[in-house]
Design a protein that fits this description.
The protein is mainly α. It has two domains: 66 residues, no CATH class; 119 residues, no CATH class. The protein is built from eight helices and two strands, in the order H-H-H-E-E-H-H-H-H-H. The chain has a two-stranded antiparallel sheet. The longest helix is centred in the middle third of the chain and has 58 residues. The protein starts with a helix and ends with a helix.
């Protein structure tokens, strides 16, 4: 049976080599091929088909004379699951499945938007009313302190003036004595004013501290109540 050695050698070398080349005669193929393929070609013609060579897919070696190699139905370039282009595709599929899983819905999905908006408006109004209440209370306390010390100042000033006038009327003093009484009266008025100013500041500070404690208590109570409503 006649065998076309040129065609057989070209077909075998095309399947065994990762490099492509044009159809050529036997000598040109041998001169352009790698040294290893040249040795394979020589062994083919010398009957050494039982020698070992690299497999088409590059994994290990295979006996050239094995039945699977000579079988016309053999599929060259076979890969298993460890091949990179297959393993990467499988890994990508697994990752994509993880992204397709059901996720928790946002918090807005579980809340009634209209009810939430109504509660927010209600709470904002309550906070504004509470702050206005605090402001009115502070103004009221400030006016109360001012009025209280103003009345006391007028009473003490009237007492000092009455005393001064009485001293001038009941005694016959010289002009120098009268001047001294006048200077003493002015000094008493100045001391009274300083004393009352200091007392007013301390009382205002004490009242403010008590009001702040009360405001913190009412604010905390409002926050707790609003939190329970939410």
């Amino acid at each position: 049976m006649y065998v076309n050695t040129h065609a057989y050698a070209y077909t075998y070398l095309r399947l065994s080599s990762p490099y492509s080349f044009e159809m050529c005669n036997l000598c040109e193929c041998c001169s352009n091929l790698n040294k290893n393929f040249h040795l394979i070609f020589l062994r083919m013609h010398s009957g050494g088909l039982g020698s070992r060579q690299s497999t088409p897919n590059g994994y290990g070696s295979r006996d050239v004379s094995s039945p699977s190699q000579n079988d016309s139905d053999y599929k060259y370039g076979r890969f298993d699951a460890s091949a990179l282009h297959i393993a990467h595709a499988l890994k990508q599929t697994e990752i994509q499945k993880a992204y397709n899983k059901m996720r928790e819905k946002p918090i807005d999905f579980y809340l009634a938007r209209e009810e939430q908006a109504r509660l927010e408006m209600k709470h904002r109004k309550e906070e504004d009313d509470l702050y206005r209440k605090f402001a009115r209370k502070r103004e009221e306390e400030d006016r109360k302190i001012q009025s209280e010390f103003q009345d006391e100042w007028e009473r003490e000033l009237q007492r000092l003036t009455h005393k001064f006038e009485k001293e001038l009327a009941t005694s016959r003093r010289s002009r120098d004595d009268q001047n001294m009484l006048t200077l003493r009266h002015e000094q008493q008025k100045e001391d009274l004013e300083k004393n009352m100013t200091l007392r007013r500041s301390k009382k205002k500070e004490s009242i403010t501290r008590k009001m702040l404690e009360h405001e913190r208590y009412e604010t905390a109570a409002l926050v707790d109540r609003q939190s329970s409503e939410m």
